[in-house]
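User: Hey, my collaborator sent me this sequence without any context and asked if I could get a structure. I don't really work with proteins. Can you help?
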Amino acid sequence: MKRTAMNHSSRRMAALGMAAALLVGLTACGGTAPTSTGGAGSTQAGTAGSAEAAGEQSYHLTNVSYDPTRELYAAYNEAFAAHYLAETGNTVEITQSHGGSGGQARSVVEGADADVVTLALAHDITLVEEAGLIQPGWLSEFERDSSPYTSTIVFLVRGGNPKNIHDWDDLTRDDVDVIHPDPKSSGAAMWNFLAAYHYADEKFAGDDAKIKEFLTKLYSRVLVMDSGARGATTTFVENGQGDVLVSWENEAIATVASYPDQYEIVSPSISILAQPSVAIVDGNADKNGTQQVAHDYLAYLYSEEGQQIIGQYGYRPSDDKVLAQYADKFDLNMKLCNINDFGGWDEAYKVYFSDGGVFDEIYLR
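Assistant: No problem. I've predicted the 3D structure and written it out in C-alpha cell form, which is a compact way to encode the shape of the chain:
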C-alpha cells in the first residue's frame, strides 16, 4: 500500500466540450478485482478494446469527480483504456460520477465505492483521507501536488457585454445579477470566493471591515446559488438567468465554443490559480484489487497524451511545454493569487468556509 440548491441538467449543456460520450452517474459497483476472460468481449465507452488474449485481466474503476470534468474524463477514459490495453494486454472500464466537489467527497466518505477521486480542491480529498480511506502523503504521490491540470476563475457574460462588466467591482452593482455556485457544496465556489476576497484585500489594503462589506454586497447580488458549477452554468446559459456567471475558465471556454457570439469571457484584474487534485482511494482500491491500475490511471494524466486531452478540454496542462501549445485558449497574463496566500487549504477552509466562518458571516448578514 502506498503511503444549496438544485443542480440543473440539460441536453444542450451536454454539448459543452463536444464529447461524443458521457459516462455519468455513480454506480454502486465501484471497482472490481481483476477477473480472467477468455473470449472476445464487447467494446464500450471507457473500455479498452475487446478481450482477445486468453488469461487477459479485466478491471473496473470508478472515478468520483466534480461537475465540469464530465467531457474531459469521457475523452480521457477512452484514451487511457486504449493505452492500458496496448501496454499490458488488460482491459479497463471506467465509470464516472459528477457533482459538486464537496458533495462528491462526502459521498465517498459515506460509502461510494470510488477507486480514485479527481476533485476540485485538495481540501475535499483531505476529508476522504480523514475518514481513513486515503493514506497520508497523497499530495506528493503525483507531480505538482497531485494536480495534473490547473484552471482559474473568470466571468462569463452575454454577447456584447451589455452590462459592461470588467472586474469584481461590477459584480456589486445594483443593476447586475450574478450567478454563482454554493461554497458549501461546490469547490468552484470556494475558488470564486477566495479570488474575490483577494481582490478586495488588495483594493482595501487589508481593511477587514471594508473587505467584508464588499463581499456582502457582491453576494447580495447573487440571484441563484446552485449546488455545483455545472448547475450554475446551466442556470446562466440554458435558463437565461443573470448578467454574469462567475465560472471555471474551462466551463467558460466550452460555453463560448458551443454558443458562438452569444457569450464572452471577461478576465478580472485578479483571480486565483485553481489546482484540482487527484488521489487513489486506498481503502477501496485495496479491497477491489485496483491499486496498481488506479495509480496508472492517474499517472497517465501527466503523459503527453493525457496533457494534450487536458488542453483540448480547456484545462491548463501542468506540463509547461504542452501549456504553451494551448496558450491561445487562456489569458496567461492574469494576475493570480494561490492557496498559499490563504495559509493553505486547511487554514483557508477553517477561516472562510467552516460553519460560522467568513462566508457565513457575510452571506447571512
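In plain terms: The domain at 153-273+334-363 is CATH 3.40.190.10 (D-Maltodextrin-Binding Protein; domain 2). You can pass these C-alpha cells on to your collaborator as they are.
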